[in-house]
Every structure is written in structure tokens, then in C-alpha cells.
Amino acid sequence: DVKVTQSSRYLVKRTGEKVFLECVQDMDHENMFWYRQDPGLGLRLIYFSYDVKMKEKGDIPEGYSVSREKKERFSLILESASTNQTSMYLCASSYTGKGITEAFFGQGTRLTVV
Amino acid sequence: AQRVTQPEKLLSVFKGAPVELKCNYSYSGSPELFWYVQYSRQRLQLLLRHISRESIKGFTADLNKGETSFHLKKPFAQEEDSAMYYCALKTGANNLFFGTGTRLTVIP
């Protein structure tokens, strides 16, 4: 079974705090993603990584950064959390291979910034 | 950029009725399209992909390049089909973009 594990299910942080969301996958996937999921807005891509230390901005990278020091781990960092970053955050991973492109998702982290 | 459009946020149908969830995409390259589903209190998971041309849980989706559409269909809806459905587009760079989702409710 492919496992994508997010370190926290629920988080409550204060405005201005630095927040780390961690994601680990155990299938040796090259690609990893961070999305935020908001009602009516669907899944919006924050950042994408296709290899260790490689990253690309998604549609809404402002206020976020990422780190991929090891293949299995992809961290999302909120440098200074704000209330408009209250959301459900989803991590996903996928394999780079012709015809094998299913993305596997973590259980999500519901972040509340107060 | 709006790459994937799902025009219906909510869709309700009666059990046994046909279902069609709409998806249109915008992409200049050769598209790879998927439908993902999220059942209540479960992870988002792949339902089907256009490359496979498969039927999963009675659902099918045909890629229409002329209309840039990838609508999801099922002839007879079941209560267990109630879920959130997302259409997704994979670009050549292995990036994966999702639409805004459609919440399907099947009424008993």
C-alpha cells in the first residue's frame, strides 16, 4: 500500500508564527505536491517538486515556501502565518513514468490560524 | 490560469438516474486527464484516467479533444456515489492541476 503521511491532522497556530507542515511518502516517488483545499475553490497547487532540492511554484505560492532535502520528504513552510492561510492542506506524490501517473494523497492537515 | 473548469459546484440526482459531471480543460499540449473522488472522511483518490479508457464503479469518461471536455458519466446513480469529484489535468512537466470540484448527492 502506498503511504503518504502528513505529520499532523489538525494544527492551530497564531498569526505571525512560523509553521511547518511535513509530508513523507514511502514509494520512492519523484514528484511531490502541496495543495490547499477550500470550499468552492477546489484544490489549488501551492508548490510542486520533481526531484530532491528541485521545486516549482504552483498557482498560489505567495506566503509559502517548501523544502525537499530528501526524496521521501516534502515540507511546506508558512514563514509568518496569517488568518487567510486557514485551510485544509493536502500533500500528494506521484511517480514519473509513462502511463503511471496516479497521484497518492495524504490524509490532510487542517490548519487554523488565529 | 484556469486550466480545468468544473461548472457545477453541486449536483443532486435521484438513485437510479443518470449522472454527468462536466469538466472542460485548457491546455496547448497533449492532455492527460483524470477524475479523482473524495468520499466522506476519506482521502482523495484516483477514480479513473482517460488513458486507460476504463469503467470504474460504473463510471466512464471520454476525452473529447474537439470540445476540450472530459465529462464523467454513470447510467444509474447509487447512493454510495455521493462524494466530491475533481477533474484533474497533468501537464507535460508532471504537474497536476485540479478543478474546483463538484459535490454529487444521490437522493434515495
Write structural notes for this entry:
- The complex is a heterodimer of chains A (114) and B (108).
- With 114 residues, chain A is mostly beta strands.
- Chain A is 0% helix and 57% strand.
- Chain A contains no helices and eleven strands.
- Chain A has strands at 4-6, 10-13, 19-25, 31-38, 42-51, 54-57, 64-70, 73-78, 87-94, 103-105, 109-113.
- In chain A, the strands form two sheets. In chain A, strands 2, 4, 5, 6, 9, 10 and 11 form a seven-stranded mixed sheet that branches. A four-stranded antiparallel sheet of chain A has the order 1-3-8-7, with no helix packed on it.
- In chain A, strand 4 and strand 5 (42-51) form a beta hairpin.
- The mean pLDDT of chain A is 93.
- In chain B, strand 9 and strand 10 (96-98) form a beta hairpin.
- In chain B, strands 2, 5, 6, 9, 10 and 11 form a six-stranded mixed sheet that branches.
- Chain B is globular, with a radius of gyration of 13 Å.
- Chain B is built from no helices and eleven strands.
- The N and C termini of chain B lie far apart (38 Å).
- Chain B is mainly β and 108 residues long.
- At the A-B interface, strand 4, strand 5 and strand 9 of A face strand 5, strand 6, strand 9 and strand 10 of B.
User: What's the shape of chain B?
Assistant: globular
Termini separation of chain B comes to 38 Å
Low-pLDDT residue intervals, each spanning 5 or more residues of chain B = none
Structural class of chain A: mainly beta
User: What is the rounded Rg of chain A?
Assistant: 13 Å
Helix segment count of chain A? 0
Query: Multimeric state of these chains?
Result: heterodimer
- Continuous helix count of chain B: 0
Rg from Cα of chain B: 13 Å
Strand content of chain B: 35-45%
Q: Indicate the low-confidence ranges of chain A by residue numbers.
A: none
Number of strands of chain B: 11
List the chains of the largest interface with their residue counts: A-B, 27 and 24 residues
What percentage of residues of chain B falls in helices of 4 or more residues?
under 10%
